[in-house]
Design goal:
Elements lengths: L11 H27 L3 E5 L13 H7 L1 E3 L4 E3 L3 E10 L6 E10 L5 E5 L3 E4 L5 H7 L4 E4 L9 E5 L2 E6 L3 E6 L4 E5 L5 H6 L2 E5 L4 E4 L2 E2 L23 E8 L2 E7 L12 H10 L4 E5 L7 E3 L2 E2 L14 E5 L6
Antiparallel strand pairs: 1-7, 2-3, 3-4, 4-5, 5-17, 6-21, 8-19, 8-21, 9-10, 11-12, 11-13, 14-15, 14-18, 16-17, 16-18, 19-20
Length: 323
Amino acid sequence: MMNIRKKQPWSFKRKLLIVMIVVLLSLGTVIYSLADRYLIEHVEVVVADDTATAGVSTAATTVAAEVNATSDDWSYSSDDIQIQIDQVQTGSGSDQITYFVADVVLKEASSLRSAFADSSFGTNIIEDTSAIASSNNAVFAINGDYYGFREDGVIIRNGTVYRDDPVRDAMALFDDGTMKTYDEEEISSSDLLAQGATNTLSFGPILIQDGNIVSDFSSVKIDSNFGNRSIQNANPRTAIGMIAPNHYVFVVVDGRSEGYSRGMTLAELADVMSDLGATEAYNLDGGGSSTMYFMGRVVNNPLGKNQERGVSDILYIKEGVTS
């Protein structure tokens, strides 16, 4: 009689191996998805280099030699631009706050511009604020809204619409030198352009609107991206405010550095902007992104480490820009 061997069941080790392979494949898919979302560059639009704009002067260092501008006293004066930067310290010990205030008066609104990292619009494209500023011959710059960390919001830069997915409170700069805060879901990008909007930034929250401090910062949520931390507590900050048409104030707050600067809460930042005379004020990306650049160097001390973090974009001031 022929012996028929019964099919043996898979061993436990073989089953475990298959489970491990499935888990590793799934984990690899997740890791790639996260890397694709947060690490791998995705260029959507390559932007013309601003240095090629007609009427633009030479590098900022050359401009500095031609006008009354020094980095020692953080002041800059020309026929078109007036900049005065002051360092302010309040409190002491663990409650000390260090921040920098740039009072800027422009002759023409077109001197205030925006620029993308690597002159490209997309996600995960980053450069240090100082690098973007230098490549665009900026006299002064701050970090922007880090638009590349999210995939929504209304992004208009230098008069071009790059993204049109309204979700949050935003800020717009206009060609008459004014600045307005608004709800993206209440006004279209085409209406903004018709009103003369040149740049919009989508981060927030609004700090001051129509001369009044926004009263409640307790439930602010910019987005739900992986890696976000609460922005309600004391943090490094960057903000822009308008005192009058073509008269702006930029504030960068250092933080997370014990004994040097703890950072500011949103309410504290709003109070500072109000005390400076801002009638409109808006919070931009903060934390390690918070950077102020002037005349070829970083003015503040990011995270107390003198080390910048790459960002998607900046706002900057330069000479010789024509409308």
